[in-house]
Specification:
Strand content: 15-25%
Shape: globular
Helix content: 25-40%
Strand order of the largest sheet: 2-1-5-3-4
Radius of gyration: 23 Å
Number of strands: 20
């Protein structure tokens, strides 16, 4: 791979993270703080497509602690050292220094890389700040600075020293546009490197990036079914914290067949290996329910790597996208060497982290039927507003005509061994007036859906209470949405 403009070959072992490898190269700006993608001390910049198929490059901040070094073969990486040094500070580094954005300095290189990714965002402009203010934000508290800097770009970066205000001031003090001769900015005008076929072999393990989609299907059909990785935001945690070592890991994130999106007359299809940040940009708010999910899904650093396929492939009962996709009546396209089959998401989950997907299959895409229900909402109940795991997640998609509920789909997460549809509640709503009386009766049924349990995030009683309150909240907020 190319790191800070210099070619550096990677030879293994296959399980080595990009963070450990970079530090072994003497690039120690990136640090390990949590080893699970929650602190941002390890963030680096990678050249990625602005959008699939576009000719330009978007500098994207990712967690180096979760990313296999082998997955970056042939790619371009910039670390904090590559942005600037003591004698030639980068504008982001200068802003952090002038405004006291660093104290102990441990987290600073990670903040600098995430801040640089937003500094180089192609569509950043002062207009975003004006729009935020027009929407009701105050000059002191809104999320966009006068330079269009979106503070949410720094989500996933933690600092225990500064109290964040100097970091915020540094972000808002950056120029609107990079200098005309800024080489990193100029690099955006040409395409990023394509994913290259890769094979790294260790004593008991292999990492492979196949050249063709058919090779992945052949590997899945073999005697040694591989572990498939895209963003590695879940698998990487197990590698770091549980010492997980797999005999065969196959990277699928660069395959064009898994990175397509298409609007048809009756459905939207989203490739399983598109990152959540890419999906967010592609949809651009046209699926309002998902537009509510994205800002609450982990951090920007995680969303820059995580994929819909990965979130569904783990089978986790607390993932944020399954409840929303259940409410959207989504279907999954499962592909193997034997062919394709389409499975409704309502039939996909079979038990705790268990699904109907066979060992020889992968998730190729997600299909969402059109038209969309007009009244949608995603309620995530968690201890923190952002960058947290759900205690309960509830997604609603309702159709209401002349005051009567004509369509009802409710997806739930965190209240059973699998994500599920609140079928009994939906039946109570269908054909009934969208009124406070109906909602109260349906909320009582919703509290009985699933099998909520006590754990360190919430008690079962709390989860039950939140289910009912969620529907009541939707009703209270629905007047403006339906007007």
């Amino acid at each position: 791979m190319t790191v800070n403009g210099r070619s550096r070959p990677f030879t293994g072992p296959p399980h080595t993270s990009a963070l450990d490898w970079l530090r072994d190269q003497g690039l120690t700006g990136a640090k390990e703080g949590c080893a699970e993608g929650e602190c941002g001390a390890c963030s680096i910049l990678v050249a990625r497509p602005d959008t699939p198929g576009s000719p330009g490059t978007r500098w994207t901040a990712i967690n180096a602690c979760l990313t296999p070094a082998a997955a970056l073969a042939g790619q371009e990486v910039v670390t904090s050292e590559g942005l600037g040094g003591p004698e030639d500070l980068h504008p982001v580094q200068t802003a952090m220094a002038l405004r006291g954005g660093s104290q102990c300095g441990y987290c600073t290189p990670g903040f600098v890389c995430s801040m640089a990714a937003e500094f180089y965002r192609p569509d950043r402009s002062a207009d975003a700040a004006e729009g935020d203010s027009a929407a009701g934000g105050s000059d002191e508290h809104h999320d966009h600075g006068p330079n269009g800097f979106d503070l949410h770009a720094l989500s996933g970066n933690l600092c225990r020293c500064t109290g964040y205000r100097p970091i915020r001031e540094a972000a808002f003090g950056l120029p609107v546009e990079p200098a005309e001769d800024d080489p990193i900015a100029l690099r955006r005008e040409t395409p990023p490197p394509a994913a290259v076929p890769t094979e790294v072999t260790g004593t008991h393990s292999r990492f492979i990036r196949p050249a063709e989609f058919s090779e992945v299907l052949d590997l899945l059909a073999g005697e040694e079914p591989p572990v498939l990785v895209a963003g590695s935001t879940d698998f990487g945690v197990d590698v770091n914290l549980k010492g997980r070592r797999e005999s065969l890991v196959v990277a699928i994130d660069g395959l064009p067949e898994l990175r397509e999106s298409q609007w048809r007359e009756d459905e939207l299809e989203i490739g399983a290996a598109l990152t959540l940040s890419e999906v967010e940009r592609i949809l651009s708010g046209r699926v309002p329910l998902l537009a509510q999910v994205f800002p609450q899904f982990a951090s920007r650093l995680i969303r820059n790597s995580a994929t819909l396929g990965g979130n569904l492939g783990t089978g986790s009962p607390i993932g944020d996208t399954p409840p929303a996709l259940l409410a959207l009546d989504a279907r999954l396209v499962l592909t193997s060497r034997a062919g394709e089959r389409v499975v409704p998401l309502t039939e996909y989950f079979t038990g705790y982290r268990a699904t109907v997907r066979r060992p020889d299959e992968l998730i190729r895409s997600v299909r969402i039927p059109l038209p969309l229900s007009p009244l949608t909402a995603f309620h995530k109940i968690a201890k923190r507003r952002f960058d947290d795991i759900s205690s309960v997640a509830v997604a609603f998609a309702l159709g209401i005509d002349d005051g009567v509920v004509t369509r009802a789909a409710i997806g739930l997460g965190g209240v059973a061994a699998t994500p599920l549809r609140a079928v009994a509640t939906e039946q109570v709503l269908l054909g009934r007036p969208w009124s406070q009386q109906t909602v109260r009766q349906a909320a009582a049924v919703l509290r009985s859906e699933g099998t909520p349990m006590d754990d360190h995030r919430a008690s079962g009683r709390y989860r039950v209470a939140m289910l009912g309150r969620s529907l009541e909240k939707l009703f209270a907020e629905s007047g403006e949405a339906l007007s």
